[in-house]
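I hope you will forgive my troubling you with a question about protein structure. Here, with my thanks, is the record as I have it:
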Amino acid sequence: MLQAISHQTGTTYPEPQTGDLWIVEEPFWRSDKIKTAKESQVAVLLVGASVALDKEVEFLGVDAILGEDLDPDEILHWVQQKQKERSKLRKGLKRGVIVAFAGLLPTGGGVGKDTLVINTAAWLTAQGKSVAVVDLDPFGTLKDRLKVETMLSVDVWEERFMEVPLKPEMVKTALVHVKNLKFWLLPASTRNEMQPDAVIRHLGQWLPQAFDVVIWNLGSGIAGTSFFAALHQAEHIFLVGTGDRAKFKAYQRTMEDYRSSVDVEPKIILNKVYEKDSPQFFEEEFRQSVFAYAMEDRHVFEITEQGKAAALEQSKRPFGVAVQKIGRDILGETEEVKPKKGGFRFW
């Protein structure tokens, strides 16, 4: 019946997201779950043989097709009508952009991903955007690098915010404000664990209602279902490697894995490029497009350690130019900044 329509089936309730459509069979009816779904503006249809739920259905304000002889066409008509209403509903909903940064290899630590995330968030904030960075790397260190003192973390989100009716204005209470760079941070797990898929989906539902841009800071390499749960929510995926030619063949294989697993075309960023022709070699030899290449040297590291953003302090140098290109892509802009001539050399 629903083969022509994209859908999922299951025996447990998903996390309700505004604009979703739920068809609930009578044995799975749970009034508390339906009430929460309605609060999140989910359209619900109850189907079943019994008419005993008529009053409760009316009280909760949901639709129902009940009786011994169910008409499949009637159910399909309900889906088609609600799909039309859903597009209008979502257009009126504040919805920020979700961006994912990940390393290109499972052993890809030290590629400068955290520095790129920090600087991209700071640059976007400087453009007047409200930005949230969520550290989903099980061994994430953004909290320490930014010298943030807080007990908040993604673990706390799961414990305190998953089971309460949220509103967009409440979301920021779960994050800590990085005052010097002016974006918001949800620190990594204190248990060094990947978050369950349900937590990722819940974060992906609520954070974009409170922020213009949400940045997932993921680990390195393809790592389990929750890793993909985050990637599947992202409108932009940036994969970070280095200019080390010995790793280029492995980068190519990783990109093939990503392309077969996600709908969004990932963009490659080569950081710590010490040989100027490395990006061109990678593109020609392995037929992979390099979106941007950056040069995170000791100056960039030192500026970041001081609680500043090198992309703002040195905006015309290669690292700053790369961050601006990333930021403009996120904002849907195409204008590029040229590196300052003579202002930087590779070594």
